[in-house]
Design goal:
The structure is a homodimer of 355-residue chains. With 355 residues, chain A is of the alpha/beta class. Chain A has 2 domains: 272 residues, Spore Coat Polysaccharide Biosynthesis Protein SpsA, Chain A; 72 residues, no CATH class. In chain A, strand 11 and strand 12 form a beta hairpin. In chain A, helix 3 crosses helix 6 and helix 6 packs across helix 7. Chain A starts with 5 loop residues before the first strand and ends in a 7-residue tail after the last helix. The mean pLDDT of chain A is 95.
């Protein structure tokens, strides 16, 4: 029997969530909103990777932009969880740089831990189920694999990248045969039927040495500058502000492109069946139960959400209606992805107060 | 040639306008909102019946509830028109009592004027055209007719009462053959085709003596108690508060039922083609031009109005979207009349702040 794995959760909280406008705003993007439960997606994510499990979770590390530091402190305090560190990115440099920082931090502080790199803005209904998947991947990661989590597809989705599983490594863990870009509808249908293709959840489990080694091979500048940015970080209590002059030198690239599609070490735990959703648009949101501010008469398949104004709807179908104190969105469900158009319009019109 | 008629406009401002919720509220019902132009319907109505015309308009009398007195003063001041009187109804007693008060006031103050009784919450695009219709009716009213204004129907509307024109009295003026209740669709289509049936706009022109005489015959209690309520009114500058103990004794009835359907004196000016609308629901409202707060992408036949929040709509059709700071309405155009359901719901739930 292997010893219990020690896991260092590193929560990536730098997303912008424009497709959940008008609730998701620059100052409070979607991960900080209570969209699915009474806690924010960030709070749920932090809580998911803590406490009792088949692995030992260290206190989490949060990586985010400076504008959200106060919000992060508040939301952590609300759920009674103290971060090991809040690492502030002086600018956005995409996920490869974050993965490098996460590896370097874990290596320096993590007592032989594996790094679990996870976005703060996903919903996972079955936390225990996902933690079991993490435990399943830990053995492979301990042996040097860079482990991805492949979500069992529930529809022929054309908006996600897919992971094609190869030879089995262990029960429920396989080598990655290939990473597949967002497929067309026909290909997605084939993936769904075949059972060897999983949605790429963008969650990674790796030993710091394995990740650093692969970055050295495939993205050496990212590895060196991200590590230097962490080593030169200004420390203020639990807050570490990355050295901006070094971090700025990291090429902006995703960990998928920079490492995962090139490395021989990629493995996948899957299919993971834990009620995962990236909450990519308002269609992923259930109607708020028992909200006195919503008066819905004779509506069908309609998503209504408010954080203030009363919303009264009569006889509408397949519609999304979202209201905040200063903005209202109305869009048919099939066009939920197009909310980004509105945000682009507001940017062009310099309507900063609504962004 | 007859001498120029002197007209005493009496503006009925007691409506509630629930079908224009959420903008129309108890404290500021639809007549006080700038729904069609930059001035409120009330302001447009007052201005319509003043100034140069083929008749001489006396300064207007306003009849309204006490809660709107301040709003009326403010809105009159904004357009620079002084009322001859603001008559406060201590309770609502429908239009017959108002017609009686208006007759009594004109008789006591109006120097042989005719009373023009008009609701404050209608829109008339062609003010000069309607004033010409008033001038046309003045001769008949001077001779003792109680003159109604019959709007030339532009569709087979089943939501209005109709006036059936009888024998001609003068060019464009006829006896009333009958008042017709809201017709079914087939009957409305026949009315539209026949050209002898006009929409009853609920606007009346009469000499005080003629109206008082007919009230004496058909509704003597309304006549006596309304007159007594005015005679016993408490005067405060231009404000007259009707004596509540007497006004309360008026049976609550409409002038149509109490007098018009019974009197032999009814006449109709019609068809009046002056762009009349009772702004009965949001479908009567044109989209606000050039409102920076409205972002409409790929929408068709959609009415969007806001008095504060930005509204962003993508790809919706035949929809009404209205937002205020505390409430949002979304309803398909064909169901615009059902907005009243929402108001009823709010009343039942005692959501006074939204009424």
């Amino acid at each position: 029997m292997t010893r219990r794995a020690i896991i260092q959760p590193v929560i990536m909280s730098g997303g912008v969530g424009t497709r959940l406008w008008p609730m998701s705003r620059a100052a409070r993007p979607k991960q900080f909103l209570p969209l699915v439960t009474s806690r924010s997606l960030f709070q749920e994510t932090v809580a998911r990777f803590s406490g009792d499990a088949d692995v030992d979770f260290l206190p989490p590390v949060i990586i985010a932009g400076a504008v959200h530091e106060a919000l992060i402190r508040t939301q952590l305090a609300e759920i009674g969880i103290a971060a090991a560190a809040i690492i502030i990115e002086p600018m956005a440099r995409n996920t490869a740089a974050v993965a490098a920082v996460a590896a370097a931090w874990t290596s320096a502080n993590g007592a032989d831990a594996l790094t679990l790199l996870a976005p703060a803005d996903h919903h996972i209904a079955d936390g225990a189920g996902f933690r079991a998947a993490v435990a399943r991947g830990a053995a492979a990661a301990s042996k040097g694999a860079i482990v991805t989590f492949g979500i069992g597809p529930t529809e022929a989705h054309t908006g996600y990248g897919y992971i094609e599983a190869g030879a089995a490594i262990a029960p429920g863990v396989a080598e990655v045969a290939a990473f597949r870009e967002k497929p067309d509808a026909e290909t997605a249908a084939r993936y769904l039927k075949g059972g060897r293709h999983f949605w790429n959840a963008g969650i990674f489990l790796y030993s710091p040495d394995a990740m650093s080694g692969e970055l050295d091979i495939h993205a050496p500048t990212i590895r060196s500058e991200a590590t230097a940015a962490l080593q030169g970080a200004r420390k203020d209590g639990a807050v570490l502000k990355l050295d901006a002059s070094r971090f700025a030198l990291c090429p902006s690239d995703s960990i998928d492109y920079a490492v995962m599609e090139k490395t021989k070490r990629a493995a996948v735990v899957g299919p993971v069946e834990a009620g995962w959703s990236d909450i990519g648009s308002w269609t992923a949101i259930s109607p708020a139960a028992d909200d006195q501010r919503i008066i819905s008469v004779d509506c069908k398949r309609t998503i209504i959400r408010t954080d203030g104004p009363t919303i009264a709807a009569i006889g509408v179908e397949d519609l999304i209606i979202v209201a905040t104190g200063d903005a209202v969105l109305v869009v048919p469900r099939p066009r939920a992805q197009e909310v980004k158009i509105i945000v682009d319009h507001l940017k062009a019109a310099k309507r900063e107060e609504l962004l």
